[in-house]
Amino acid sequence: MIGIGASTGGPPVLQTILAALPRDIPVPLLVVQHIAQGFLSGMADWLNHTTGLQTHIASNGTHPLPGHVYLAPDDFHMGVGSDDAITLTQQAPENHLRPAVSFLFRSLADVYGPNALGVLLTGMGKDGADELKAMKDKGAITIAQDRKSSVVHGMPGVAIALGGATHVLPADKIAEMLITLVNRRNCITRSSDHGNP
Residue range 55-61: average pLDDT? Predict the structure, then answer.
């Protein structure tokens, strides 16, 4: 499972990353993008038309599919449950935000541990920074966008300062790293499966 968090300047970076991923990438992508209410549907349509991946506004109880992108809906935190289904909640805002990247990343750390990938992109504030480190501490590979390619280097900058980023990359190199990491993980999984009766 790949979790991505973004705020100011996020949509074009998301589009750059998603457009560079193969349609058959064998994992789902859950995305929290801070955006003004009412604009999310248009963003989902835009991503659908400009990337090779099907993009949806997430629904509660959905089991996310590989190669699909799920956006946290307006005013709902998004996470995953132990049954691998998407959970939506209107619990209290975190970092003054709902949806919050922190909620998603904490959920991925708790449910998937080392089987998750976390990506924190451009944005002001610190939403998701502590939780990206929590993902890393549980064995997940984590990526923070670098300062030069960020519109605002708040969220990823705080994560880097906390030691929460396994990799610090420019926006146009993140997809390549995700593909490498997913392929490596699949090779390890296939090798271990092959040895089991």
Answer: 98
